[in-house]
Amino acid sequence: MKEIASSLLIALPSATSAINRLAKDGYLKRISDENDRRIVRLEITSKGKEMYDECYKDVLQKMEKILAPLSEKEVTEYASILSKIIASYNH
Description:
Elements: H1 2-8, H2 12-24, E1 28-32, E2 40-44, H3 46-67, H4 72-89
Helix pairs in contact: 1-2
């Protein structure tokens, strides 16, 4: 849970709550590590993969709509700036 919370930049209890809901709803399943009981891995289920694919498609459509008024050069500049912001945030 620490790794998930850290990568999503959210509090540990929030990550735990979200993962619990996703597992309860059948989108994820927990898999215990054979060598270390403290480690629990998460695996996306087929139901979870379907939901992910639908959400990803929706996000792409929304981004296309948002970026439509921009020229190709402006989209490239936007992507470059966004990459720099993300890189600085991850350090």
